[in-house]
């Protein structure tokens, strides 16, 4: 295992497109780090630069303290798992797992006994031991993905790279594979860089997440730290389902004013002044019997264990996530388009400067 460091790493294509701008990021030895962001933000570019599949334009990338800018992919000691399983259809699971080891040359070559031992170890870890003689077409999607992961693990890589590895699976299988990937990491402890646009994968898998937008690193933190203390409005709106409510206005004299909407600031923000964006997550918007901010209900999404209320508060649309029960429960909203009151001045609210 090794640590990884991006130091002012950048990528500019020949047509002038800036894919990645001065990325400074460290992945600690044994850490599971997730690069998270929307499509086209630069996260896959960062992974490809680390893998040696793209040439770096500026800055440096090091693995285990050694700069690898000019090393070919095969000399970097990496294992790679991509969206496509890329299994050999005519080979058994055993042969797919061992293919890279059998093709190794020079000092990387190992004997057949060691190859067999590594394959058996990976198969047991990935619950593939009963499928070693099967062909890929006889496997489920989840099993095929596990073969692709096992093929990378048997090489004992310094760093494991994963680029959207679960995106071809259905929702139920993705949930299971998230659990299995986390379990595998805890067992194996390989330094891992995982790329995804799926915030649920990021929140459930990562030791830390690095959120990227427009080629720039926005925040690098533990998942819950980024969720509860977002660095900016992009992070606040990207993490969370539903996304954080963001209201643009100004703070003054202990109040927040946004057009026709006005409410008192919570105690921890009461001394703030000037223009800003007030943020509160839907699960903290408490529906009240009386008082608070008066809203018109625009619609309700009933999801079984919870409901999302879409509310018009003085011309600003906000969402309240209702899923509490017992004495702390919010009043149940029974009819669309009724009026109700909410409390926005909650201790969990944030205020971003403009």
Instruction: Classify the oligomer.
Output: single chain
The CATH superfamily of the largest domain appears as P-loop containing nucleotide triphosphate hydrolases
The general outline is elongated
Number of domains: 2
Task: Assess the beta-strand content as a share of residues.
Answer: 25-35%
Query: Strand order of the main beta sheet, please?
Result: 6-7-8-3-9-10
Amino-to-carboxy terminus distance: 42 Å
Structural class: alpha+beta
Number of helices: 8
Instruction: Give the rounded overall mean pLDDT.
Output: 89
Describe, in plain words, how this protein is organized in 3D.
The chain is α+β, with helices and mostly antiparallel strands and 354 residues long. It folds into two domains: 230 residues, Rossmann fold (3-Layer(aba) Sandwich), CATH 3.40.50; 113 residues, no CATH class. It is built from eight helices and 20 strands. Strands 6-7-8-3-9-10 form a six-stranded mixed sheet, sandwiched between helices. It has a five-stranded antiparallel sheet with strand order 13-12-11-14-20. Strand 1 and strand 2 form a beta hairpin. The longest helix has 18 residues. It is elongated. It starts with a strand and ends with a strand. The mean pLDDT is 89.
Tell me briefly what this model is.
The protein is of the alpha+beta class and 354 residues long. 24% of the residues lie in helices and 33% in strands.
Identify the notable features of this structure and list them briefly.
alpha+beta; 354 residues; single chain; five-stranded antiparallel beta sheet
């Amino acid at each position: 295992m090794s640590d990884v460091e991006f130091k002012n790493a950048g990528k500019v294509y020949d047509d002038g497109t800036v894919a990645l701008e001065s990325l400074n990021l460290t992945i600690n030895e044994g850490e599971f780090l997730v690069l998270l962001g929307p499509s086209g933000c630069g996260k896959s570019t960062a992974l490809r630069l680390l893998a040696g599949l793209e040439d770096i334009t500026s800055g440096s990338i090091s693995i285990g303290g050694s700069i690898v800018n000019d090393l070919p992919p095969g000399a970097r000691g990496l294992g790679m798992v991509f969206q496509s399983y890329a299994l050999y259809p005519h080979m058994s699971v055993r042969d797919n797992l061992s293919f890279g080891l059998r093709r190794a040359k020079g000092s990387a070559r190992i004997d057949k006994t060691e190859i067999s031992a590594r394959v058996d170890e990976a198969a047991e870890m990935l619950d593939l031991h009963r499928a070693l003689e099967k062909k890929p077409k006889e496997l489920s999607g989840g099993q095929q993905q596990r073969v692709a992961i096992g093929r990378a693990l048997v090489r004992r890589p310094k760093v494991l790279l994963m680029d959207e590895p679960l995106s071809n699976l259905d929702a139920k299988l993705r949930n299971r594979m998230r659990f299995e990937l986390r379990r595998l990491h805890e067992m194996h402890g390989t330094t891992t860089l995982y790329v995804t646009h799926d915030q649920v994968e990021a929140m459930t898998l990562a030791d830390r997440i690095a959120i990227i937008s427009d080629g720039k690193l926005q925040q690098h933190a533990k998942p819950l730290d980024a969720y509860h203390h977002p660095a900016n409005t992009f992070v606040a709106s990207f993490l969370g389902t539903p996304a954080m409510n963001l209201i643009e206005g100004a703070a003054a004299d202990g109040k927040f004013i946004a057009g026709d909407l006005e409410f008192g600031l919570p105690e921890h923000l009461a001394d703030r002044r000037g223009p800003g964006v007030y943020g509160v997550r839907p699960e903290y918007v408490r529906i009240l019997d009386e008082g608070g901010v008066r809203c018109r209900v625009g619609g309700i999404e009933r999801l079984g264990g919870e409901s999302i209320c879409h509310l018009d508060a003085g011309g600003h649309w906000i969402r309240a996530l209702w899923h509490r029960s017992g004495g702390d429960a919010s009043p149940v909203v029974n009819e669309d388009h009724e009026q109700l009151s909410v409390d926005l001045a909650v201790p969990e609210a944030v205020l971003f400067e403009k």
